[in-house]
Amino acid sequence: MNNDLLFDFNVDKAAKTVYITKEFNAGQALVWDAFTKAELLDQWGAPAPMRAKTRYMNFEVGGRRFYAMISPDGVARWSVQEFTSITPKTNFKMYNAFADENENREMPGSEWDYNFSEQNGITKVDIVVYNESFERLEKLLEGFKIGFTMTLKNLEGLLATLS
Fold this sequence. Notes:
Elements: E1 7-12, E2 17-24, H1 28-36, H2 38-44, E3 51-57, E4 64-70, E5 76-87, E6 91-99, E7 110-119, E8 122-131, H3 134-141, H4 144-162
Antiparallel strand pairs: 1-2, 2-8, 3-4, 4-5, 5-6, 6-7, 7-8
Helix pairs in contact: 1-2
């Protein structure tokens, strides 16, 4: 395990934007798959003790992922992700919004922009999260950094088992 891998998390409140950069000790194709295939996302996409469960995912421009983070007592927090742009293996963008179990979205949401690059077997993922409102950003930040950091650690463990 390479402990020198970059992890950077910055918030620009004025721009309502979160900037995340994370390096993984795995090839770009595998890291791409981990971010874009439901069966892999469900293995790392929720901070313990929560778990992720995808109801459906259609990874194509205009397609969606509808999934929940489920607590140990069975309470589900649903989200809809709509894919707005895909450049295979290097970039995808999506619109994310919380929703109810019937897929009715809560507004406002956020726009996510993922960029993937690899050098010497280390894959770097740059993520920019633009929030439609300052209130949503403030609400998101309450637990987002801790939870997202935990999910990225889950991903590191999964990638180690798949490499």
